[in-house]
Design goal:
By secondary structure, the protein is of the alpha/beta class. The chain contains 10 helices and 12 strands. Strands 1, 2, 3, 4, 5, 6, 7, 8, 9, 10, 11 and 12 form a 12-stranded mixed sheet that branches. Helix 1 crosses helix 10 and helix 6 crosses helix 7.
Length: 309
């Protein structure tokens, strides 16, 4: 990968805070992270003050802060497609996506549940995995947007094994950790208490961990989630695989609410995103905090550099 290839930032939902935090991040870095220039991708009208740094979409977006418009869907998805194509072709080093509004895209006929699934389809990835990362913690939820009652049925040995393998591969390739260490949380309180509080640990998670160890990976678990995230525990691993959404997201949002980054693992391209939504209620007010977008750009550049080594 060209060490001077640009980092691309898509506009996200035009009615939300995406375009403004994208511009704020661009200005924070002075339009460049190291040798890599930054480029904004979307309707040039949303980036009028930085038009010379924009990769334009053919579709146009009518941006009224806080007001969703189904007519903007084509521009939103085209920006993502343009950025992914540039990364796949080697014309760009990484993709940073501003938040999208899934409901309005679905109303327009968008067939994917969200960004991650769309990126997997565009890149032909067999499986995409969501990581939330900060300087203090990296976590991956095995199951994401499922009702809690449906989580146990979705926890399988294959899912734990495959997800862990993707995480460990990414820690080496994208984060430059030569011998990555993974902690795997249990599903039940106290990791099942030897079967007294649930059987998933003994029947599913422990066998998956054993299979990973047999492959030479540094993995430990299943571990009790209530003692997995204090400072001393975090020093013993490079990432934690959790069994469900809140088990992963509560600790990282407590530790790193403003600078957590959403990273998609398992793709042939580098993709990061700020760990927040479109924030329609504050769009256009000047109140949007760009720290998560800034962190997403910084991490994307670091991951691109790691892949270039």
């Amino acid at each position: 990968m060209d060490r001077a290839a640009p980092i691309l930032i898509t506009m996200g939902e035009p009615a939300g805070i995406g375009p403004e935090v994208a511009i704020a991040a661009f200005e924070h870095f002075g339009g460049r992270v190291g040798a890599r220039p930054l480029r904004l991708v979307g309707d040039p009208g949303l980036f009028a003050s930085h038009r010379e740094h924009v990769i334009p979409t053919h579709a146009r977006a009518k941006a009224i802060p806080g007001t969703l418009d189904v007519a903007n869907a084509d521009a939103v998805t085209e920006a993502i497609e343009l950025a992914v194509r540039a990364c796949l072709n080697g014309e760009a080093a990484a993709l940073v996506t501003a938040p999208i509004n899934k409901a309005i895209l679905n109303e327009a006929g968008f067939p994917h549940p969200g960004h991650t699934e769309f990126l997997a389809a565009l890149t032909g990835a067999r499986r995409a995995v969501m990581m939330l990362a900060s300087e203090k913690l990296r976590v991956v939820p095995l199951t994401i947007h499922l009702p809690v009652a449906e989580v146990p049925a979705a926890v399988s040995k294959q899912a734990v094994f495959e997800t862990a393998e993707i995480i460990l591969t990414a820690l080496r390739r994208d984060f430059g950790i030569l011998n990555p260490r993974l902690a795997v949380a249990g599903l039940n309180p106290h990791a099942g208490e030897e079967g007294m509080l649930g059987a998933e640990e003994e029947k599913i998670i422990a066998p998956a961990v054993a299979a990973l160890k047999a492959r030479g990976f540094a993995v430990k678990g299943p571990l009790s989630a209530d003692t997995l995230f204090h400072e001393e525990a975090r020093r013993t691993y490079d990432a934690a695989l959790c069994m469900y959404h809140d088990q992963a997201l509560i600790p990282i949002k407590t530790l790193s609410f403003w600078d957590g980054v959403n990273v998609t693992l398992g793709l042939p391209v580098v993709r990061t995103s700020p760990d927040h939504g479109t924030a329609l209620d504050i769009a256009g007010t000047g109140k949007a905090d760009p720290r998560s977008m800034i962190a997403a750009v910084k991490l994307a550049a670091a991951m691109a550099d790691a892949r270039s080594r």
